[in-house]
Amino acid sequence: MTKNYETFASVYDAIMDDSLYDAWTDFSLRHFPKKAKGTQLLELACGTGIQSVRFAQAGFAVTGLDLSQEMLDIAAKRAASAKVAIDFVAGNMLDLSGVGSFDLVTCYSDSLCYLADEVEMGDTFAQVYAHLNEGGTFIFDVHSVHQTDEVFPGYSYHENADDFAMVWDTYEDEAPHSVVHELTFFIQDEDGRFTRYDEIHEERTYDLLTYDILLEQAGFKNVKIYADFEDKEPMETSKRWFFVGRK
């Protein structure tokens, strides 16, 4: 693993609000079946493992899946430091063959919004359904259309620290309910020099009915929808939608 990527990931972790992981954990524990501890949990798009460690500390047998082996290497170090056993797997949520079956599956931090279109969203839901045990629970969050259409366009965030700086600008994209995040990082190396890195992140969401239909087509029944980490129905100004589906 390159030193740069480790630094890169640590920058991501540094700018994330730590309390969000507590909120994702609390929401999950409220909506998992009772006596869920010790059960098999798959966390999709686990990244550097912060949420996976939270779940392991809560008593679940956790598998974390992510596209990035570099991120998973960092996640494994994080789990070792926390003294929890987590199985980290490099893979794509569009194809979960080979990862086994689970009682619980989660996908947080609007990771599903990075899928290209409705077809990929539907395929992912079908994969999750196929790898859930009977009676299993699938929980995920996505951006609301209010977030992509009203809040994000024109959003700008700048951060300066001793060893890195970041500029984050968000613009409306061409597809409905889609945005482009342009991120520029300046990261200090061991020689004290700053190197520039540029990233483009494209995200897309859909209206509630679309998610409902895709989940139903995948086989999920009686899907419950909530908003902004609370056990309340979405409102027009809700920013983050949460879905709880059972097999």
TrEMBL record:
SUPFAM superfamilies: S-adenosyl-L-methionine-dependent methyltransferases. The keyword Transmembrane does not apply. Keywords: Methyltransferase, Transferase. InterPro entries: Methyltransf_25, SAM-dependent_MTases_sf. GO terms for molecular function: methyltransferase activity. Pfam families: Methyltransf_25. GO terms for biological process: methylation. Residues 42-136 form the Methyltransferase domain. It comes from the Bacteria. This is Class I SAM-dependent DNA methyltransferase.
